[in-house]
Each structure stands twice: as structure tokens, then as C-alpha cells.
Amino acid sequence: MLAGLDPMIYDFEYEAKEHPLWHPLREEAPMSAPIDRPGKIIAIHLNYRSRADQRGRTPASPSYFFKPSSSVAGTDGVVERPAGTELLAFEGEIALIIGTAAHRVSVEDAWSHVAWVTASNDLGLYDLRANDKGSNVRSKGGDGYTPLGPDLIPAADVDPAELRVRAWVNGDLRQDDETSGLLFPLPQLIADLSQHFTLEPGDIILTGTPAGSSVIVPGDVVVVEVDAPHSSKTLTSGGLRTTVTQGTVAFDGALGSLPAVDDLQRAEAWGSREDAGLAPAAEPVEAPAATPAASGLDPQLRAKLIAAPTAGLSAQLRKRGLHACFIDGVSANLPGAKIVGTAKTLRFVPAREDLFKSHGGGYNAQKRCFDAVDEGEIIVIEARGDATTGTLGDILALRAKARRAAGVVTDGGVRDFAAVAEIGLPVFSQGAHPSVLGRKHVPWDVDVTIACGGATVQPGDIIVGDSDGVIVIPPALVEEVVDATLAQEDEDAWIAEQVEAGHPVDGLFPMNAAWRAKYDAVQADRFLSERSETKND
Fold first, then answer.
1. Domain spanning 7-270: which CATH class is it, in words?
2. Distance between CA 294 and CA 288 in Å, rounded?
3. In 10 A of CB 523, how many CB atoms?
4. N or C: which end of the chain has fewer CB within 10 A?
5. Is the Cβ–Cβ distance between 35 and 120 less than 8 Å?
6. What is the pTM of this model?
């Protein structure tokens, strides 16, 4: 560890004499001590309000992951961006070094167990982020991915609510935030972790990164500093410098999952879609007034649709000029299944090796769709009518069932067919097929207009399926169509009674004027009878 801040470590390829870390003169010598390999490195996923605002999500409580001790590196080091990857990102952080064992300590007592505070760069490779979603084993565990130092600030000399972390890339300030902007204060993290396991001397806690973290490329130099700007004396970690180099060894796909990136990972690694060079996300389109709420259909409307057969519904749609409302070629995996719900769409495009490499691995569109489906929704998959490949299996079916999805409709095949049926999730498909994703398809997008089984389906469309098949109803027409269908069902039931009684169908089906008068009279009597019963009640 460096005992002092040598300004020569900032010898960039451009003039940097005004660099804000150039403080060779100090009021007193910084406290410095070697950091031996820690027993544990615990990092928090999201902890700065600025970062939460940037990500568009705010956790209700802290969540953590472990980093291997072999990832520790000292100051003025290098880190490789592995061959075949693009999204290595820096994260300037405040690192806490435990001085005395902490087991079930209170928030009030927690800070007394911290010996030192210093700077850290919690480097991460977003190309591997989705492969170990949440645990960050490979994306955050690489050699050199946890630089620390160079100097140690005595924890007893600082207020944990008044620390600051800053990070520069090639001399440009990219991060600047204070612990007053934390979602979960530093003592809370120590107390929380200590109720699950003992924090031991030398353990390191990485306390989160503020907004401004972004992608770095070979040749970039990152400097991170932690200080106490409101203190009466100069207390700083000094500049923690890391230089990015290009690795030459690629990952071996025969051993494990390969790096893969998509636009979601690019946007999160760079900090925004704009910084990643991506087109802005499409603005949400306001649904028509008659469209059911995203949380699901009105219970009364759902009950009507459950009672209405698809044959009757399709007849009413045809009367209104809608002739392409059928999702052709699909049947239910559960005999007698009836599904009713709003469409959540998933689009596959034809397989192409380079696109599958960038969009097929990791947390792809297919997984995002099944993770985000809401109660009462039906996942509708565009698989281009290709029955020779599976479009979901038992794991995704379990996820949809756990999310209380109403079912799945795909114009492709289903793998693990028997297991999916045993789960009890209604699935309408072209049948079983054992292949995995990638044989014919690339998962491409979610919540877009798709074509499934010859029918156009938009997010929020009403999907109804039974033993006759699956149909799509525009939300603006659903009330009118279902009421007309149920009225027709009553009429058809009365006609069936007449046929069963021995009357010929000629003039009865459809009804001529004479039969219509008889039916209307029966309906009028039924109405008066029901009204009388209601009045008496």
C-alpha cells in the first residue's frame, strides 16, 4: 500500500496538473496499513438514491453478494477486459474494513466494529451478468476486480454519514456522491449482515456505487478516492488507480456459459440507453378507454368470457367484420382447458448465429417475459408457426404458474410437454418437441405487436381458448361481443330443445318469423318471472 499520494501516479497522456486528486501536501501523514487477503468480501447491489433513480428501481431493503478474496488488487494496478467481451464497467465505492468481530450488533454499536475506510473499484463484466443473475459470481469475481486503497482512513475519525466517493476516468469526473445519499446507512449494513453471520477482522464490505458508473475500455485509467469533505482535517484514501488492458484469452464455451449481451445489459452497463448508443425506449402508448386495466379483466367480464364458447365469440366477431381473429393450429395440453386473459406478447425471430449470441443467452427476452407476466395475463408467443422447436419448458411454465398467469399460447412447440401438463399451466401449442431454444428462434422482444398462428396480437388484447381453439378479441369490442355471444347461446339452447322435441330444423335454425315470435314470447315470460322473483325477494 502506498503511504502517501504520489502525484506522479496520475501521469496521463494529457495535461492533468489541475486534476482534483493532486494533493501532495497534507496536514498530516495519512494512516496506511497493508490489507491482507480478507476472509469475506460482501457487496451490496444497490444503495445510492442517485443510482436507484438512474436504474428506475428502489429496493425496500438491502441485498448482497459475495466477491472472492482472489479478486482483491492494490493501487496502481491493471485489470484485463477478457477477449470477446465489451461491457467492463467501473464502480467507485466506499470500502469498510472490519476491525473487531461483529455478531448481532445493534445499529448504534455497529460503527465501532469498523477499523478502516478506504476506496474500492467494484469492477464488473456485464457480459456475464445474466449468467449468474443476482449472485454475480463470474461477472464480479474476476482477478483484479476489487482494487482497494491506497490509504486507510481510521473509521473512528469520520462520521459515516459524511463520507464522499468520487471517481474519474482519464481525468474526467464521473462519480461524486456522499453517504448522506445512501438508501441504507453504513451502520445499518453492518448490523444487518451481523445478524446472519459473524463479521470478522479483515472482512470487507463494499457499500454501493452512486450514479455515473459506466463502461471502460482498454487504455482507460480509473481513479477512485474516498474522503471526508466536512471534516476539520484532511482525511482521504488517496487515489486508487486502475488501468484497463485488453485480454487475449477468450472463455471456453465447452466449460460453461459464454459471455452474451443484449440491449438491457448495454443500457445498464453504460448507465442509460443514450450513453450506450441505443435508440430511446418506445414511449408507452395510452390504451383505449375500453381496454381492461393491466392488472387484469373485470371479474364480471371474465365470468362472462368463461361462460362464452370460442365458437360463439368468433361468430359475433365475424358479424362485425373481423375474420382474422383465430390463432390457428394450436390445441390445449390439458383436455377441457379454458383460458381467458389479456395478452402479454413475446416475439421470436428466425435463428441467426450472431443474433442468438447477442440476444439468446443470459437474461433474454423470453426469460424477461416469464418473469414479468402478471396475474390473469396470457403469454402469447410468435414462433412463426414452426412446430419443430420448443418455445418453453417446465422451468418457465413453473415461473408462469407462480406468477399466476392464466396460460400460454404459442404457435410453436413445447418441450418437457408432460412435465408442463403436470404443472397444471394451460398451454395451447402445436404439440411436443424436445429441442431447446436456439434451434430455430432468437428471443427478440416483449410487449410488442406480434403474429401468432396467423392472427395479429397486441399487448392487452383479450385471449380466449377452449377445446375449439384460441381467438383474439379487440378490447374495445369485448363487452359487446361477449354479451351478444351469451344471448346467442341462450337462443341456440332453446332451438336445441325444440329439435330434441322432434321439430325439424327447417325454419327453426335459423328461426323464421313464426319461430321467432314463439321464442320472444318465451323470453318475455322468463323476464317477467325473474322480475317477480326479484321483487318478492
1. alpha beta
2. 12
3. 14
4. C
5. no
6. 0.52
- Per-position pLDDT tens, the chain of length 537: 333 333 333 332 323 333 333 233 233 333 444 466 799 999 999 999 999 888 888 888 899 999 999 999 877 789 999 998 899 999 999 999 999 999 999 999 999 999 999 999 999 999 888 877 778 999 999 999 999 999 999 999 999 999 999 999 999 999 999 999 999 999 999 999 999 999 999 999 999 999 999 999 999 999 999 999 998 889 999 999 999 999 988 888 778 878 888 788 888 889 888 888 877 765 544 434 333 333 468 888 999 999 999 999 999 999 999 988 999 999 999 988 999 999 999 999 999 998 888 888 878 899 999 999 999 999 999 999 999 989 999 999 999 999 999 999 999 999 999 999 999 999 999 999 998 888 899 999 999 999 999 999 999 999 999 999 999 999 999 999 999 999 888 888 888 888 888 998 888 888 888 888 888 787 777 766 655 555 555
Domains 7-270 and 299-479 share a fold: no
At 411, give phi and psi (nearest 5°): -90, 20
Give the residue ranges of the annotated binding site for Mg(2+).
416
- Listed by start position, the domains of the chain span 7-270, 299-479, 486-536
**Whole-angstrom distance, CA of residue 305 vs CA of residue 4:** 75
In CATH, the number for domain 299-479 is 3.50.30.40
With a CB cutoff of 8 Å and minimum separation 6, the contacts of 525 are none
Query: How crowded is residue 244: how many other Cβ atoms within 10 Å of its Cβ?
Result: 20
> Binding site: which residues?
393-396, 415-416
Question: Cα-Cα-Cα-Cα dihedral of 234, 236, 238, 241, to 10°?
Answer: -150
H-helix or E-strand containing 478? Answer: helix 478-500
